[in-house]
Specification:
Length: 254
């Protein structure tokens, strides 16, 4: 992280904060905005210079900062939902300088909006490098989406992550790296990455399993057919640049 810092800039998925006096209040607005948008990384102990480059200044008491962070993010009166796991929050050190990296995933639609101070009107969204209060229509839209049940997000407990076509996963991840250069998810293992994009989820056994969407996207045909008997392949040939496009569907679903 430290060696790459000079090349980074604040933007849609990166926010830095000096955090010299403890946790800044604006941290929670960014947490809400990232969780309600496309996810992102918050770096505490990093400052933005006048030329927009970034410099690590470190935090004064990393352990206290981490304790305060976890106490607050797990307080429902301050934050509506904790969408983080232990591995999402790390203290990184180099040459006696310690910064805190917080990787905020996009919240599951059933949890959105993520809001502050027990008030849904304190829901934020991310635009470029800024955090903005959500409009009433945006909040209502997220609440409607949360109420709708999606079969695609259902984990399949009989299917293991290792049963997916790992070559297809690898190919997708390569495309993702090209279109999301520098994104924190590129550093994750396959299991955590699939969870971030909704292709895997925790089942009742407490372990990650492919979701219906994940199996349809990355699964072998025979394994899909076992789990989803109404599944079929729909081949459509188009003359544009002489490519064959293949889409996977289930009968009765679009």
């Amino acid at each position: 992280m430290f060696e790459k810092l000079a090349a980074y800039r604040e933007g849609e998925r990166l926010e830095v904060k000096r955090a010299q006096g403890g946790l800044p209040r604006s941290l929670w607005e960014t947490y809400s905005a990232f969780a309600n948008s496309s996810g992102g990384v918050i770096l505490l102990g990093v400052e933005e210079l006048p030329d927009t480059s970034l410099r690590a200044v470190g935090v004064k008491d990393p352990n206290k900062l981490l304790d305060d962070f976890w106490n607050t993010v797990n307080n429902p009166q301050k934050v509506s939902e904790n969408v983080l796991t232990d591995s999402d929050v790390q203290a990184l050190s180099h040459d006696d300088v310690t910064i805190i990296q917080i990787t905020v995933p996009r919240a599951d639609r059933r949890l959105r909006p993520i809001y502050l101070n027990d008030n849904p009107k304190r829901s934020f969204r991310r635009n470029r490098s800024g955090d903005y209060l959500c409009r009433y229509e945006e909040i209502q839209g997220m609440m409607r989406d949360a109420a709708d049940q999606s079969q695609d997000s259902r984990p399949l407990p009989r299917v293991g992550i290792g049963e997916l076509d790992l070559a297809t996963v690898s190919s997708y991840r390569q495309r993702y790296r090209l279109s999301h250069n520098g994104h924190a998810w590129n550093e994750l293992g396959d299991s955590d990455f699939l969870r971030r994009i909704g292709a895997a989820a925790e089942a009742e056994d407490g372990r990650p399993h492919p979701t219906v969407a994940g199996l349809l996207m990355f699964g072998h045909d025979w394994r899909i057919a076992e789990e989803l008997p109404n599944y079929f392949l729909d081949y459509r040939q188009q003359r544009v640049v002489s490519c064959v496009f293949v889409s996977r569907k289930e009968k009765g679903r679009v």
